[in-house]
Amino acid sequence: MIDPSVLPLSEVDDLVYRVILSRYPQIDLFERVSSPEDWEVLFVVESLTNPRLRNEVGDIRLVASEDRVYGDGASWIMAAFTHPPVDGRGGRFNRDFGLYYCSTDESVAIAESSFHRARFLRESRIEQTTQEMRVIRAHLGPVTLHDVRHMEGAAIYDLDDYGESQQIGDALKNTKSFGVYYQSVRTEGECIGVMRPKALSDAIHWHYLRYHYEAGAIVKVESLGESGRR
């Protein structure tokens, strides 16, 4: 197990891209909160009258009150943290908590998303389909991240086994790290796993994509335009 205190640190202040299924809605609750103090009261009141709210919003108790964000674009940020993985496998650096995976390079974010969508569809025994995706652009930083890009070849970069990397993720989470900077194993490029929402701001819907899936892989990524729309 790597001690987070020995990892190098990198400063980031840049635009980042994340790709999600387009059917995931923007959650008005996040947009309507006007101050951190409103979170708990508003969530309780709304959940009493809307039984679907917890499924859509997730569990905001997973995010420390000082890390929560609110206002325009907050839903695209908060949803990643209030919905931990449910597939039993988890993400590369998270299993029991949510994490905002993104990249400063949109093509890397697309490659990562394509791999994970294809794996999900294969495991669901779907032979051929198309899926509409949404690119979210946000601003990350200025923030200091733990950097493991120099550790290529280590167990944390295993293509399928996330055991070692999730241990590092747990350790970073416990030290209140803002996130981890790492190499993509799906394409040439770099990824970021953001661990605290307040490192992100100005999130918007950037544009739509259509993934064409067949024979176990995403064989075509089609841009549907609408850049910059919310």
Structural topology:
Layout: E1 9-21, H1 28-32, H2 38-49, H3 53-57, H4 74-82, E2 100-102, H5 106-123, E3 128-147, H6 163-174, E4 179-183, E5 190-194, E6 200-214, E7 217-223
Give a verbal description of the structure:
This protein is an alpha+beta fold. The chain has a domain at 4-24 and 87-223. It is 27% helix and 30% strand. The chain contains six helices and seven strands, in the order βααααβαβαββββ. A hairpin with a 6-residue loop joins strand 4 (179-183) and strand 5 (190-194). It is globular, with a radius of gyration of 17 Å. The relative contact order is 0.22. The model has no long low-confidence stretch (mean pLDDT 89).
What's a quick, concise take on this entry?
The chain is an alpha+beta fold.
Tell me the total number of β-strands: 7
Q: What does the average pLDDT come to?
A: 89
| Tally of helical segments | 6
Low-confidence stretches: none
Largest sheet: 7 strands, mixed
* Proportion of strand residues: 25-35%
- Tell me the helix content: 25-40%
What value does the Rg take, in angstroms?
A: 17 Å
Secondary structural class:
alpha+beta
Distance between the termini: 42 Å
* N-to-C order of helices and strands: EHHHHEHEHEEEE
Q: Give the overall shape, derived from the CA principal axes.
A: globular
